[in-house]
Specification:
Radius of gyration: 13 Å
Shape: globular
Helix content: 10-25%
Strand content: 15-25%
Distance between the termini: 13 Å
Number of strands: 6
Structural class: alpha+beta
Number of helices: 3
Length: 133
């Protein structure tokens, strides 16, 4: 999978939407077509976060926000990608939190990727407790 277009999109949005200590960006794709993009929202919560095991009063994560834009439908066959850009403007670890892992599981995402601390993309395997390369 070519992640360059997603990286470019994340950097383009970073300057406009970064409000926390790091910038988080998520995209949901069907093959190479982007269906939904979103960023973390540190000022909003959403009642459906509890359905996916997020902490009470959790801020709206980029992954959840992207899924909400699709209507929280069955995402079988779709790919979700999470990117984190740190305050030094480098790609950093965007591993899925427990709530995002539950979201991925319940919505049946086919493929899941996140950036690691070295800026590489790691494929997340739902059936395992740790991500694999």
């Amino acid at each position: 999978m070519n992640f360059n277009r997603l990286i470019e999109s994340a950097y383009a949005l970073k300057g406009r939407f970064q409000t926390g200590r790091a910038f988080h960006f998520a995209a949901i794709l069907s093959k190479s077509k982007i269906l939904s993009i979103a960023t973390n929202n540190y000022s909003k919560t959403h009642p459906q976060t509890l359905q996916f095991n997020y902490q009470p009063n959790s801020r709206l994560h980029a992954e959840m926000s992207a899924a909400l834009k699709l209507g929280l439908q069955d995402c079988s066959g779709l790919t979700i990608v999470s990117i984190r850009i740190d305050n030094n403007n480098r790609l950093n670890n965007a591993i899925f939190c427990p709530g995002c892992k539950e979201l991925i599981k319940q919505l049946n995402f086919k493929n899941c990727y996140h950036t690691d601390k070295n800026g590489n993309f790691i494929r997340y395997e739902q059936s395992k407790t740790n991500p694999t390369s």
